[in-house]
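Q: My labmate handed me this sequence with no annotations at all. I'd like to see what the chain might look like in three dimensions before we decide whether it's worth expressing. Could you predict it?
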Amino acid sequence: MATQKDSTDYSDLKAVFFNGTLKRSPETSNTEGLINVSRLIMEKQGVSTRLIRTVDHDIASGVYPDMTEHGWPSDEWPELYPAVEEADIVVVAGPIWLGDNSSQTKKLIERLYAHSGQLNHKGQWVFYPKVGGCLITGNEDGIKHCSMNVLYSLQHIGFTIPPQADAGWIGPVGPGPSYLDEGSGGPESDFTNRNTTFMTWNLLHFARMLKDAGGIPAYGNLPEEWKAGTRFDFENPEYR
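A: Here is what I predict for the chain of 240 residues:
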């Protein structure tokens, strides 16, 4: 049965892709090759996208919004963070090294975590109206492990994670071709292309739903009200 083309307007949405490759520009990034599959689908829907290769920037290590206030001589993260503030969709992408996420991907997660105590205009945690996804590349096993780490981290700090919000590609175990290498089969992989497409559309659908609904309802999740004594129907069983 033929499926009708989606007529929903996504043109007011913004997405930012973070590439955790260890290769500085202009060196070819295989992760960026997979990012572009998702990015092109979004741009076909009129979504404004931005790609940030974190290794190209002087991002300090740490868990504070501006590490120059904590002993670091420089930190570009405060200049990059507005891209997250403006985005409806945040996709964390990166390669597998030693079966795990790259140091750049982990640094990004830590810097996002630095803002997890901030609040949005409703008084919820600041990332509540945003959706998150994950793309992983490599030539050894580890896609699910890396994705679990990223998606857990994003939801923990307030992102909404749609179903099937990750995708990836890996070549043979051990030395072998990377995603963009000639003959790798990466760009032709039906499994990877399907999952990347599904992830992208699920991110679009959830971002659209959240934006149209004005975000997540602000009841039962307001930290300042909890601090002030509001308990949102919570009852301590010890006092029954």
